[in-house]
Amino acid sequence: MEHHQSKSFPISHVIGFVVSLVLTFAAAGIALKTNLSFKVIMWIIGSLAVIQAGMQLFMFMHLREGEDGKTNLVNMIYAVFMVIVIVVGSIWVLTSGHAAH
Amino acid sequence: MSAKVDTSLPLEYQTEQDRMNILGFWVFLGAEIVLFATLFGVYGVLYERFAGGPTHKDIFVIKDVMIQTVLLLTSSFTMGIAIFEMRRHNLKGLITWLVITLALGAGFLFMEINEFIHYAHEGATMQTSAFLSSLFVLLGTHGAHVTLGIGWATMVIIQLLKRGLTPTTARKTFIIGLYWHFLDVVWIFIFTFVYLKGLVA
Q: Which parts of chain B sit beneath pLDDT 50?
């Protein structure tokens, strides 16, 4: 990073923490206290989880800092791509046959 | 590997060696993400294969899950504060926040072990059904990582006490910090795609 962190109050950490708590309880509330359909609920809470994970990466883990910041970002984007291939791919391949027959 | 030290950077980034170690750890985390992706994939395929055994709603206790989540989330925050203090060259603050982080992590583990005991008492063991096999492997792998993290961070704290803040100990602390935040990221997805998904009406 270009500058030393000498601030006396970790404001971005506090914001990250508060937002994480809000997202967590919002997800729980939507999943458990609403009558939306299963599909809609999963899309909403899945999105909230992705946002929260992104916050951890950028606000707590300093993903993009340092001279390797760009490499880290590409590394994580590739990891996310692998997650989608492995998780969505597995579920798709191993369950789609059952629905059709 | 050069001895060039760039003192304009935070301690953990000052030498080429330490920068490479941190980059290498990010690559390792990429591999860890793929490891957990395989476990989430298995769980996603098998999560309704109850084989006549208990279902999600029979065993999940939302209150305990929320406590676990808040414990781990808070520990991720306190770990962030620990690194923040490290960058202010405040060794005492760093160690204090690390110890708080580990106490929260231990609280999480305590809850998880109790949860497993509670499941076993309800007849929900790894052998009961495909759902429970995949559940225990996913949760157990995460819990094993937390256990390892507590042991690892304890050793880092001992080094900090013995050697103080140097580029090397700062880099080691920063890396255990990354690892700890990563475990919280994995938990966010367990919370969402295991517990909440299982409890949606």
A: 1
A43 CB within 8 Å of a chain B CB: no
Whether residue A71 lies within 8 A of chain B, CB to CB, comes out as yes
Of the pLDDT bands very low, low, confident and very high (cuts 50, 70, 90), residue A1 is very low
B57 inside 8 A of chain A by CB: no
Encoding tokens for residue B54?
A: 């208990």
What SS3 class is residue B90?
coil
**What is the dotted CATH code of the domain comprising B68-201?**
1.20.120.80
Percentages (nearest 5) of helix, strand, coil residues in chain B: 80, 0, 20
Which residue is listed with tokens 């950077």? B9
Higher-confidence residue: A96 or A5?
Answer: A96
In this predicted structure, the answer to whether residue A81 has a pLDDT above a threshold of 60 is yes
Q: How do the domains of chain A map onto residue ranges?
A: 1-62, 65-101
Token readout for B32 is 């860890």
- Domains of chain B, by residue range, sit at 68-201
Interface test with chain A among B29, B67, B196, by most A beta carbons within 10 Å = B196
Looking at residue B147, its amino acid is T
Helical (H) or strand (E) element with B48: none
